[in-house]
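Pipeline run #58 for the internal structure catalog. This entry was flagged by the ingest filter as a single-chain record with no existing model, so it goes straight to prediction. Upstream metadata was stripped on purpose; only the residue string is passed forward. Reviewer on rotation: M.T. Logging verbosity set to normal.
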Amino acid sequence: MELAPPPGGNQDRGPTLIAVTWTFTAMALVVVGAKVYTRLKIVRETALGDLFTMLSMVLILVCTSLVAVDVKAGMGRHAYYLNPEQRVRATKINFILNPFGIMAYSLPNISVAIFINRILSLRGWRKWGIYGIAIAQSFIAGISCILLFAQCSPAKFLWDPTIPAKCLPSTVITGYSYFVGSYSAFTDIVLAVVPAVTFWKLQMKRKTKVGVSLLMGMTAVAAICAIIKTTKLNELADLDDFTYGTVDLLIWAIVEADVIIIAACIPALRPFALSVSQSVRTSHQGYTGHSSRRHFPLEDMSSGAASEGSKWSNNTWFDTQRDRDPAADHDIRKTTEIATEWEQV
């Protein structure tokens, strides 16, 4: 089929695609690296959620690396300016990298769900509800990966439309894609709201409530990315200019994955932050010659008794014993006055 010249001429969004995706993936890699260091060197304890975070990081690294290969093949340019071989290769690589990106923004929510259940000690339907929502997202995303290639037989038709093939109606794939995007945003919102509401009910200082709620609510940022990505799904219908028309969709899919990976890691970085803070104070005191009795021992990060029977993990961003609101204690307290005497020798 003869392609019409696109408006705007021979534009190339490839460099923008690489710059944005690698910037966010690099940030996610740094945060994951900090979490791994915290787990192995500071806390010396690992959790099941770490496995899903690490797996997601590997998936998004593969996806972003394939994006660079795809751009070299012609992704980001109008199909009109690519020869048939370039169009086939660029579109094929795009389909190959998609499952890595889809699972990369789905698996981290399992890590977030594990973390929420661990620090809030949820029970009954609340516990399994959180797990169910996160696991269901990964299951739904997995089906999306299968449909991606099963929509046409043979699948080669997806990147080489010159061969004969039988395909499902385009409305099936488009409709399911909208469902996946909407459910992803729903999951991110739930994982942000549940801990924020719970923390707000605890007997803690208001500034601590705000800080912890914001940290745990970072999945809401991923929800925004998911919503924007979902609005770009209509680009999949632009089969005549697939290499240029789907750039925004690809960008937002990778950004969403990186943001949710970061959101899954940040609440566990408190020991790392305190360790860095302590090192800075030690260096400053050594330089000025002053000393301070105030310190932040890493052992103090262990669980403290929280209200409503909650148990807190030793990797959260606060210590309930240190951050709880004094006004929430009993109004009447028993105190003991102690007098000491000494003789000068």
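catalog note: The CA atoms of residues 152 and 167 lie 4 Å apart.
catalog note: The two ends are 106 Å apart (CA to CA).
status: ready for reviewer M.T.
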